[in-house]
Amino acid sequence: MKIAIASGKGGTGKTTLAVCLALSADGPVRLLDCDVEEPNCHLFLKPQIQLRKLVTVPVPEVNTDRCSGCGQCRDICQFNAIAVLKKKAVIYPELCHSCGGCALVCPTGAIREVEREIGYVEVGSRDGVMLVTGTLDIGQTLAPTVIRAVKQHAAPDGLTIIDCPPGTACAMVAAVRDADHVLLVTEPTPFGLHDLKLAVATVRELGLRFSVVLNRVGIGDNRVIEYCKQEGIPVRLQIPDDRRIAEAYSRGELPLNARSELKVRFKQLLDELGT
Amino acid sequence: MKEIVILSGKGGTGKTTVAASLAVLASDAVIADADVDAADLHIVLKPVTVEQHEFRSGHVAVIRQADCDGCGVCKRHCRFDAIRAVEQDRGRAKSTVDPSECEGCGVCVKVCPKRAIDFPERVNGEWYVSQTRFGWLVHARLYPAAENSGKLVTHVRNVARRLAHRHHARLIITDGPPGIGCPAIAAVSGADAVLIVTEPTVAGAHDLERVLGLVRHFNVPAFVTVNKWDINPDNAAPLENRAAALGVQLLPRIPFDSAVVNALVNLQPVVEFGPSQAADQIRRIWAELNKWLN
User: Fold this and answer.
1) Which of A172, A254, B72, B183 is most open to solvent, judged by the fewest CB atoms within 10 Å of its CB?
2) In sequence order, which residues have a C-beta less than 8 Å from that of residue B7 and are 6 or more positions away?
3) Is B107–A202 a contact, with Cβ atoms under 8 angstroms apart?
4) Do B265 and A221 form a contact (C-beta atoms < 8 A)?
5) Are strands B48-59 and B121-132 parallel, antiparallel or unpaired?
6) What does the alpha-carbon distance between residue B242 and residue B248 come to, in Å, rounded to a whole number?
7) With an 8 Å Cβ cutoff, is B294 touching chain A?
8) Which residue in B287, B233, B278, B274 sits closest to B260, CA to CA?
9) B-contacting residues of A 106-145, CB under 8 Å?
10) What angle do CA B52, B54, B60 make, to 5 degrees?
C-alpha cells in the first residue's frame, strides 16, 4: 500500500508525519522522500546511506559536420531549447524536456542524445525503515523526473510512505499519483484552509482517495474542521500545538520523543488505512 | 524601480506573513504573489480585482477518436507515458491521452500516421490585477494539477513590472514559492534582491543552504531574516553566521509570537493588527530594506 503525505501549504508537518508513520509501522516499510527540492526526511531518520545513483535525462547533442541548419529540430521543440545560429542548431540543455522529438525529425542524423545529470537518489536505512531520498541539483528545473526516479523504489507489496513537495503543481502531482491514499496535512489557519481546498481539488481531479491530518490544533480557528465536515472529508488525526514539539523539531527530533503517547495514534492511523 | 523576491527554501517559514506586512509598510509598492499554486497573499490584503485573464501556456495532445486506428505509434514514441490504449467495441483498441501526464512536446502529433492528433493550447490557470489599500496586487491561480507553474510565475512578475513602470512605483514586493526548482528559479531570475525567511530548525538550515546556492547560481544579492528565532536560540546564530559568511546581509530576527497567527485569523497583516514584538521586528526589517532602496 502506498500512502502519500501532501499539503498545499508548506511547513504544515508533512515530513514529521511521514517519518513518524514510517517509524510506527509494524512490518518493513519504505519511506520515499519526494520533496526533491528540499528533502528533509534524512535529517530526522539519520539513516546509513548504502547507495547513491545519479538521475540523468537524455538531451540532444549536435554533430555540426552533419547539421544542415534546416531548423526542423527547432520547429518541433515546444520548449525553446533549440535555436539555429549561423546555419547550425544550438542546444540549450537546461530548457530541454527530453522528449526526443529533435533527434526523431533530424533529416541528416546530426542529433544524438547524451545523458545529463539533474539530481541523484540515495538509499539508506535505519530502525527498519528503508529511506529513498531524491535530490534535485541546484539550478535544475525537472523535479518531476527526479520524483519518478525515487518512486521506482516503492515496495512491490508492503507499506510505502511518500513525503510529497508542497503546492499543487506538477511536482506534487508526480509525487501523489498512483498513491492508494493521500493524507493532506494542514493547520487550522486561514492560509491552511485555503491551501487545503486547493490540494483537495487536485487530488479529486486525479481521482485519489484522501483524508486530512490537522496539525497544531489549538492555534487559529475552527474553520478547517467545519470545512471537512461540510465536504464529508474524514479528519484522521489531530496533533496538538505544543511548543515542546516545535523545539524538538528544531533539533531534528520527532514529536514521538516530546509526546510519547502520539506513537499509539500514528499506529492507529495506519491501521485505519488498512495497512 | 527595484524588485525584492521573498523566498525560503523550506515551506511555512513565514514568507507571506513578511510579504504582507512589508506591503503595508511600503504603502506604495506593487505586490506580486508568485506562489501561484498556493497563493495566499490575497487572504490578508483583501484585494478588489479589476482585471481577470486566462493563463494560456503550452499545448496538450488530443487524439480524435473517430480518426484513430489504434496503431500505437504515438504510444511507442511518448516518453512521458501519457498515452493509454482503450478498448472500444468489438475488441478494437484506440489510443487516448491522459492530459495530466502529457508534457505538451508534440512528438505524437508529428508521428501519427493518420494525422489524428490535435494540439490545442492549454489553459493552465487565471491571473488577476487587483487593487488593495496598499497598492496594486498581481496574483494568479494555477488550476488543480496544471502544468507550467514556472511560466505563470514569470508572467505574474512581468505584469507587476509593467504596472510598476506605469505607476512609477519604486518597489515591487514579490512573494515567492517554496523550494528551489522550476517556480523558484522563475521567481528569482532577474530580481534585484532576494529576502530569505528562514527558521532555526535543522530543516530550515538544510533548506537555507540550498536556496542560498540558488541565489548564488543566479547571482542575486540576498538578505536573510530568522523567523521564530527563539524556538531554538542556539540554532539561530549559526544560521546567521553561515549566511553572513556567504556574503548575505543579515536583517533583524523575528520572534515566535502568537500575534502572527491571531492577525492571520483576523485576516490582517501582523503590522496592522496592533502592537506585537513580531510587528516591531518587521518594522525594523523594513527600515533596513529602505536603506537598500534609497
Assistant:
1) B72
2) B15, B176, B177, B178, B184, B187, B188, B194, B195, B196, B197, B211, B214, B215
3) no
4) yes
5) antiparallel
6) 9
7) no
8) B278
9) 136, 138-143
10) 170
Q: Is B202 on the interface with A (CB under 8 A)?
A: yes
Q: Taking the CA of residue B183 as centre, how many other CA atoms within 13 Å lie in the half-sphere pointing to its CB?
A: 34
User: At a CB cut-off of 8 Å and minimum separation 6, what does B73 contact?
Assistant: B111, B112, B113
Of B142, B144, B235, the CB nearest to A250: B235
Compute the distance between CA of residue B252 and CA of residue B223 in angstroms, rounded to an integer. 10
Identity (one letter) of the amino acid at B236?
A
Q: What is the pLDDT of residues B1-60, one digit of tens each?
A: 999 999 999 999 999 999 999 999 999 999 999 999 999 999 999 999 999 999 999 999
State the DSSP H helix or E strand holding residue B138, giving kind and residue range, or none if neither.
Answer: strand B135-142
pTM over 0.90: yes
Per-window interface: B 261-280 vs A, CB < 8 A: 261, 264-265, 267
Q: A67 φ, ψ to 5°?
A: -70, 125
Task: Compute the distance between CA of residue A33 and CA of residue B253 in angstroms, rounded to an integer.
Answer: 30
β-strand pairing of B62-63 with B249-250? unpaired
DSSP letter assigned to residue A63: -
Give me the percent of chain B exceeding a pLDDT of 90: 93
Q: Is the pLDDT of residue B70 over 70?
A: yes
Q: Which residues of A123-142 are buried (b: 16+ CB within 10 A; e: fewer)?
A: bbbbeebbbbbbbbbbebbb
Measured in Å, how far apart are chain B's first and last C-alpha atoms? Answer: 10
Q: Is A70 touching B (CB cutoff 8 A)?
A: no
Please determine, for the modelled complex, whether the ipTM score is greater than 0.90. Answer: yes
- For residues A233 and A185, what is the distance between their CA atoms, to the nearest angstrom? 13
At A77 the three-state DSSP class reads coil
